[in-house]
Amino acid sequence: MFRIISLVVLSMFAGPVSAQSFEAVVSEIKESVVGIGVHDPLGAPKNTLQGTGFAVGDGRHIVTNFHVVERALDTESMQKRVVFVGQGERPEVLEADIVITNPAHDLAVLRVKKQIKPFKLAPTKRLPDGREIAFTGFPIGAVLGLYPATHRGFIAASTPVVTPSANAQQLSIEMIKRMKEPFLVYQLDATAYPGNSGSPVYDVTTGEVVAIINKVFVTQSKESALSAPSGISYAIPVEHLRKLLSELND
């Protein structure tokens, strides 16, 4: 799920909420975190978790990474994009439609018919290095199931999204475009795993979303993200999400 180096109401622009204990923040935000996946009536299993997402705005819009939903569905087998709501082995399964995407910033917004408790988005002000954050999602969710896990860390740096390649043959068209139009992402001193793609990164005192997890640095193979995690993850600043959501109102 990771790429390896894998009508929104105005209430989402509300001001800061009051500080509260971290335990209270986590308990509250879990209601807004959902799983993103595919329902295949002919498959085994029928439901597959592909990443994490979270509700915003009117509660019917779900944010996740573009790379979580970019693979086309198999219409012949009647696959459907779905959102998993709740916890445990039998979550509620809601059919979802992609309403807008931004591949350059690895963002996508889906829509469901049922209202889910939405997150508040933090202001667009860039956070300083050392700021404490947390993120909640479904690491290795395809194996462990829909049990939201929270990880805590801090912002280590703001760094360009482009990661140098060992040689020119490894440069993709997408990477070349990013080199021409680089933007900064947050490098986090926190460990994310496959399944955490799309997880909300939030302020530990207010619960406001400040970024979206989108990839993890691995030192060896893709599989080493599980056996030997680097402890370095990356997240897209909330300013890019705010801009994308504003386009829904245009």
Report, as a whole number of angstroms, the end-to-end distance. Answer: 31 Å
Overall geometric form: globular
Computed over alpha carbons, the radius of gyration is 17 Å
Q: Which parts are unreliable, with pLDDT below 50 for 5 consecutive residues or more?
A: 1-18, 163-171, 219-228
Assigned CATH class of the domain at 31-118 = Mainly Beta
Spatially, the strands of the biggest sheet line up as 5-4-1-2-3-7-6
Strand portion, in percent? 25-35%
Profile the largest sheet. 7 strands, antiparallel
Mean pLDDT: 82
Number of helices in the DSSP assignment: 6
CATH superfamily of the domain at 31-118: Trypsin-like serine proteases
Which structural class do the helices and strands define? alpha+beta
What is the number of beta strands?
Answer: 13
Features:
single chain; alpha+beta; six-stranded antiparallel beta barrel; 6 helices; disordered N terminus
Summarize the structure.
A seven-stranded antiparallel sheet has the order 5-4-1-2-3-7-6. The protein has a six-stranded antiparallel barrel with strand order 8-9-10-13-12-11. It has a domain of 88 residues: Trypsin-like serine proteases (Thrombin, subunit H), CATH 2.40.10. With 250 residues, it is of the alpha+beta class.
